Amino acid sequence: MLHEILLALSGHPSPLFYENQDPQATPDHQTPFPALSSTERSLLSSVGTLAEVHNKTRQFCHQISSTHPSLVCRAVATCISTVHLARFQRKILLVEEQILRKDASQVGAYDIVPLAGIIAEFDPWQGLMSWYCMIAEFMLAPKQEPKESCTASSIINRLRRETSTGYFDIEQAALDLRGVAERAWLRQLSSWLLYGNLSKGATYDFFITANTENGETEFHLHTDHLPHFVDEDVAASIHLVGRSLNLIKTRKLMANSSVADISLLPNQASVLSTLQCPLTSSQFSAAIHRIRQTFSQKTLRYLLPLPRILQLLDLMAAFFLLGRGEFAVCLISEADRCMEERRQMSNRSTTTQDTSLKSLMVTEGEISSVLARTWSTLLSMTDDSDASDPIFDLGRKLLSLNMSSNRSQVSTSHHGIKNTHHSFYDMLLSIPVQLTLSIPSPLDLFLTSSDVEKYSSIHAYLLAIRRAHMHLSQLWRQTLLRRDHPAPTGPPRSNTDYGRRVLKQKRERERERRLECRKVWATCSAGVLLLSELGEYFEGQVVQNSWLQFRSWIQRSQPDGENAMSAMRDLSLVSAGSDKHETSMQDTGNAGSRSHDPESVASAHRTFISSLCTSLLITDPAFTGILRSFLANIQALTGSFTRLALIRSALDLESDEGVVDALMDYEHEETTVKLELDRSRKRLDGDMKALLVRLRELDHSTLRTNTEESDGFEVDDPSRRPYQPDQSGGVDQLLMKLDFGALVERNEEDAVYDLL
Question: Rg (Cα) of the chain, in Å, rounded?
Answer without folding.
Answer: 38
